[in-house]
């Protein structure tokens, strides 16, 4: 059995003395009824939403001070027990401050026509990126319909056929001249899929392989010597035909360039005028226009190809797409971003990949912006 010490007896005595000094209260004194007439509302729904946090004046002053500092390397750290209104406090104050600040620009990622592995990143006036993407997409879609129509038009096909006929006439003239020179050396010329064949003649008759085999060695040697003298003339003919083919191809290419310029010039000029205040966008539009004009066959579908092959051929048209990284069209003032899952990719963005025929593939359209970029010019 534990014996009471002197200090225990003293504590009990002090407790009894304290109870005697406090005034005892009755049950009626512990209850106070609030009259309904004192309340100036019917239900709590009629009350305005409470702004701020009760008894957190010091926290509000600290938050106001931190938000006013616009220099780098300054942050605000908010701590407290769960349910004390930390998030509400920050949201309420930031919304009030952010509406008075300028809205930051939009950001887009586009194809680099010179170095496809290095996409280009541009900023645009806030709220214009999505509009620009739609406008450029509309132009490309319109050209996908117009270019095949104009390309297969009777007028264009007649011009192309005229160039081909002219080329064919030039090649025929060269062939006739070659054949005349060959006849002087006792040969006739035959054009085959594998090239030019020289056939020896005896008067007006062709020497067959059987007759050639029956010739004497001296006669065969004479034929081969005359054939060697004809080789430079044949080489010159082949060079002439190659030059004619190259020239014809260039002239057809120029004709297609004129066609593409006539079809695409007006839409692109209008788009450049609308974004004339952004030199980067104007420069990009010039590159898109040039690439389209130089690659008109990309806009010409080939119905003979299987569906999967056509999809692969149409894929280059995605080069004219615009990847909108950040869109502030619905942002009023500075952006406020709450990142609830601050992983590396969520904060700084990532480059996605897609699987094609067992191989992972990526391009500018798979670049994704993070919350750091989303909150740039605002609050994270």
Task: Give a brief description.
The chain has 380 residues and is mainly alpha-helical. The chain has helices spanning 6-21, 57-68, 86-98, 129-151, 154-184, 209-213, 217-274, 279-294, 307-314, 344-348, 371-374, and strands at 106-110, 120-124, 187-192, 195-202, 205-206, 323-326, 350-351, 354-356, 359-361, 367-368.
Describe this structure in words.
The chain is mostly helical and 380 residues long. Helix content is 50%, strand content 11%. The protein has 11 helices and 10 strands. Strands 2-1-6 form a 3-stranded antiparallel beta sheet, with helices on one face. A 3-stranded antiparallel beta sheet has the order 3-4-5. α4 (129-151) packs across α7 and α5 (154-184) packs antiparallel against α7.
């Amino acid at each position: 059995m534990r014996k009471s010490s002197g200090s225990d007896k003293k504590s009990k005595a002090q407790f009894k003395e304290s109870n005697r000094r406090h005034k005892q209260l009755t049950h009626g004194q512990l209850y106070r009824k609030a009259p309904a007439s004192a309340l100036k509302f019917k239900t709590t729904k009629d009350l305005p939403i409470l702004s701020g946090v009760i008894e957190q004046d010091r926290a509000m002053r600290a938050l106001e001070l931190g938000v006013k500092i616009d220099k780098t390397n300054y942050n605000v750290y908010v701590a407290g027990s769960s349910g004390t209104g930390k998030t509400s406090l920050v949201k309420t104050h930031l919304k009030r401050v952010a509406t008075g600040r300028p809205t930051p620009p939009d950001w887009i990622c586009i194809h680099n026509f010179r170095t496809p592995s290095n996409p280009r990143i541009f900023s645009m006036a806030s709220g214009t990126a999505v509009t620009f993407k739609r406008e450029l997409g509309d132009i490309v879609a319109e050209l996908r319909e117009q270019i095949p129509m104009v390309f297969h038009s009777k007028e264009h096909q007649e011009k192309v056929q005229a160039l081909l006929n002219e080329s064919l006439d030039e090649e025929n003239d060269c062939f006739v001249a070659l054949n005349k020179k060959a006849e002087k050396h006792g040969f006739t010329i035959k054009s085959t899929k594998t090239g030019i064949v020289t056939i020896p003649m005896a008067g007006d008759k062709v020497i067959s392989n059987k007759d050639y085999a029956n010739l004497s060695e001296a006669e065969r040697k004479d034929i081969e010597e005359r054939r060697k003298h004809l080789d430079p003339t044949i080489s010159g003919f082949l060079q002439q035909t190659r030059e004619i083919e190259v020239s014809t191809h260039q002239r057809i290419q120029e004709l297609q360039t004129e066609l593409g310029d006539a079809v695409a010039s007006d839409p692109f000029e209008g788009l450049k005028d609308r974004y004339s205040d952004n030199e980067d966008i104007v420069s990009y539009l010039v590159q898109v226009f040039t690439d389209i004009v130089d690659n008109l066959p990309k806009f010409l579908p080939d119905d003979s190809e299987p569906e999967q092959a056509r999809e692969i051929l149409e894929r280059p048209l995605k080069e004219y797409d615009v990847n909108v990284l950040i869109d502030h069209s619905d942002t009023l003032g500075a952006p406020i971003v709450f990142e609830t899952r601050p992983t590396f990719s969520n904060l700084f963005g990532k480059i996605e990949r897609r699987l094609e025929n067992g191989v992972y593939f990526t391009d500018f359209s798979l670049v994704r912006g993070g919350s750091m970029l989303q909150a740039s010019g605002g609050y994270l």
